């Protein structure tokens, strides 16, 4: 099986860089629904441009290359120990080549292993079957959408929907609520896999398993097929939209599986996957380990036009105001910004995510941050032979994790703008108002699109936190992000959350 390692390397690279055909078709469908010129349409155009760029340059679609999970079916007698070793080598190589971000972090020390190999990572499941061939599938599910997974234990009281009992209607309420509670934070429009029954663990496993179904298949169980169609239809009336900016496309796929449960337990588990739905598979010759067939590549491969972002921006030009910002930014400049404006950033910005925010609470900053822009981002970086760093992927990370720190840090260091995704909460909103700060929402997952705006890496501090968590000093040009929280107490996120809750409550009445 000399080719097995090579095949696994190909599977990893392809999964990270080339979105499956069925996923592309769903994104295209969502695009048709959005009205040209709206923020939702502009965001979707950025997403599709990013998909094209990743494909063309063979680079990660999103900088968070996720928790690598391999599901492998093998004929009797296959050497699983050797296969596991080969997968580890392939993962290390793909990390070295910038196709994967080093994503394996020691939970106790915080140390990043640097090569994606660590206690429990990557996840590899083997199962024997009676067929002669090997079937290897891989899903790379990012941390932001993983954080939006949710598990319900019925009966339960569901926000907006009331009592959910141990029946199909109770299940319906849980699933609808799961989409509402994710808002835009898992980089909507997303896909969900649902597991009904089992114990807590197998229920979640069943949910994740559903994500391996083709997005346009039909559930053989009629009741579940009906529920899937219902959820897809109704979730798209919630008005959460792409990145939670409001709009028509909130959910792109819903797949539900059911297993038996214990008499005393009734779990409904939901695995939320962002639009950057990276899962592929291959069939392999068991003797050589060579790829004989790719999975999830049947039907039309939609490719997206390159110039659509510019065209969509133009169509919306009458409704949105563009403001150019370059650090150091003054309080007056910030006070002029309103929710809905598009900020175009030139000059310097500095990355800072979980470890940096935690660090800055207690320590001084490594550089003067007065009037500066902080970017919630953990990029994929590669060093060349001259010791110069290059950005390989650099989209935003979920900002809400910094909610306990952000306001204090902005005030302490005089930071004027933070860029991230998914929005922040009341504490930050209040600080923006008091201090004169702004929150800018970049398009989650658009890691190639933003990497292209980064024209130079001027340095790095706090590398001891690992590549994704270090503070990178980046020089950018034409980096576009939308003002979604301003210094006048306005928050698009708050508004969308409230209006989507009202819409959710319309589905309170019994359906099943
Ligand atoms: O870790 C990241 O870079 C992003 C993460 O997947 C997120 O969605 O917040
Ligand atoms: S940043 Fe968004 S697109 Fe990327 S892994 Fe996280 S949730 Fe998915």
List the helices and strands and how they pair.
Layout: H1 4-17, H2 21-33, H3 39-57, E1 67-75, H4 80-96, E2 123-129, E3 134-141, H5 143-146, E4 150-153, E5 156-158, E6 162-164, H6 168-182, E7 190-196, H7 200-210, H8 222-235, E8 251-258, E9 267-273, E10 278-284, E11 291-295, H9 308-315, E12 322-326, H10 331-335, E13 342-351, H11 354-362, E14 373-375, E15 380-383, E16 389-393, H12 406-413, E17 417-420, H13 426-435, E18 438-441, H14 447-451, E19 454-461, E20 471-485, H15 492-505
Parallel strand pairs: 1-2, 7-8, 12-13, 13-14, 14-17, 17-18
Antiparallel strand pairs: 1-3, 3-10, 4-9, 5-6, 7-9, 10-11, 13-20, 15-16, 18-20, 19-20
Helix pairs in contact: 1-4, 2-3, 3-9, 6-8, 12-13
The protein binds (2S)-2-hydroxybutanedioic acid and iron/sulfur cluster (SF4).
Would you give an account of this structure?
- This protein is α/β, with parallel strands linked by helices.
- It folds into three domains: 1-139 and 280-320, no CATH class; 143-273, no CATH class; 321-496, Fe-S hydro-lyase, tartrate dehydratase beta-type, catalytic domain (fumarase).
- It is 32% helix and 25% strand.
- It contains 15 helices and 20 strands.
- The chain has helices at residues 4-17, 21-33, 39-57, 80-96, 143-146, 168-182, 200-210, 222-235, 308-315, 331-335, 354-362, 406-413, 426-435, 447-451, 492-505; strands spanning 67-75, 123-129, 134-141, 150-153, 156-158, 162-164, 190-196, 251-258, 267-273, 278-284, 291-295, 322-326, 342-351, 373-375, 380-383, 389-393, 417-420, 438-441, 454-461, 471-485.
- It has a five-stranded mixed sheet.
- β15 (380-383) and β16 form a beta hairpin.
- α2 (21-33) runs antiparallel to α3, α3 packs antiparallel against α9 and α12 runs parallel beside α13.
- The radius of gyration is 23 Å and the shape is globular.
- The chain starts with a helix and ends in a 7-residue tail after the last helix.
- The mean pLDDT is 96.
- It binds (2S)-2-hydroxybutanedioic acid (LMR) and iron/sulfur cluster.
- Iron/sulfur cluster binds next to α5.
């Amino acid at each position: 099986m000399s080719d097995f390692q090579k095949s696994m390397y190909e599977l990893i690279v392809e999964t990270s860089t080339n979105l499956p055909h069925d996923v592309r078709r769903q994104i295209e469908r969502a695009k048709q629904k959005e009205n040209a010129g709206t923020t939702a349409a502009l965001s979707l155009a950025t997403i599709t441009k990013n998909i094209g760029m990743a494909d063309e340059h063979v680079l990660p679609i999103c900088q968070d290359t996720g928790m690598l999970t391999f599901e492998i079916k093998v004929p009797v007698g296959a050497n699983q120990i050797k296969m596991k070793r080969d997968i580890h080598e392939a993962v290390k190589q793909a990390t070295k080549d910038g196709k994967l971000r080093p994503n394996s972090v020691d939970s106790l020390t915080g140390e990043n292993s640097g090569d994606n190999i660590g206690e429990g990572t990557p996840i590899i499941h083997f199962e024997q079957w009676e067929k002669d061939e090997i079937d290897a599938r891989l899903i790379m599910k990012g941390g932001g959408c993983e954080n939006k997974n949710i598990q319900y234990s019925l009966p339960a009281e569901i926000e907006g929907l009331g009592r959910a009992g141990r029946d199909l209607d109770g299940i319906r309420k849980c699933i609808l609520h799961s989409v509402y509670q994710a808002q835009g934070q898992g980089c909507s429009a997303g896909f969900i896999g649902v597991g009904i029954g089992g114990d807590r663990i197998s229920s979640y496993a069943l949910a994740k398993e559903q994500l391996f179904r083709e997005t346009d298949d039909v559930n053989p169980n009629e009741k579940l097929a009906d529920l899937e169609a219902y959820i897809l239809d109704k979730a798209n009336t919630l008005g959460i939209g792409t990145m939670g900016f409001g709009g028509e496309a909130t959910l792109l796929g819903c797949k539900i599986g059911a297993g038996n449960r214990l008499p005393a337990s009734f779990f409904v588990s939901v695995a939320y996957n962002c639009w950057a739905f990276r899962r592929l598979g291959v069939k392999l010759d068991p003797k050589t380990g060579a790829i004989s067939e790719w999975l999830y590549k049947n039907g039309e491969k939609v490719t997206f036009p390159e110039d659509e972002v510019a065209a969509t921006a133009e169509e919306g030009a009458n409704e949105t105001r563009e403001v150019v910002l370059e650090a150091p930014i003054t309080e007056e400049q910030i006070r002029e910004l309103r929710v809905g404006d598009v900020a175009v950033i030139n000059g310097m910005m500095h990355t800072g995510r979980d470890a940096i925010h935690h660090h800055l609470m207690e320590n001084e900053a490594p550089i003067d941050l007065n009037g500066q822009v902080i970017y919630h981002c953990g990029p994929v970086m590669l060093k060349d032979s001259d010791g110069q760093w290059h950005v390989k992927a650099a989209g935003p990370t979920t900002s809400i994790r910094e909610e306990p720190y952000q306001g204090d840090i902005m005030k302490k260091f005089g930071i004027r703008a933070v860029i991230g995704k998914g929005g922040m909460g009341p504490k930050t909103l209040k600080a923006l108002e008091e201090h004169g700060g702004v929150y800018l929402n970049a398009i989650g997952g658009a890691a190639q699109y933003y990497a292209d705006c980064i024209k130079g890496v001027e340095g790095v501090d706090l590398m001891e936190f690992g590549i994704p968590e270090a503070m990178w000093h980046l020089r950018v040009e034409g980096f576009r992000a939308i003002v979604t929280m301003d210094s006048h107490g306005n928050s698009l996120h708050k508004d969308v959350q409230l209006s989507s809750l009202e819409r959710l409550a319309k589905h309170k009445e019994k359906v099943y």
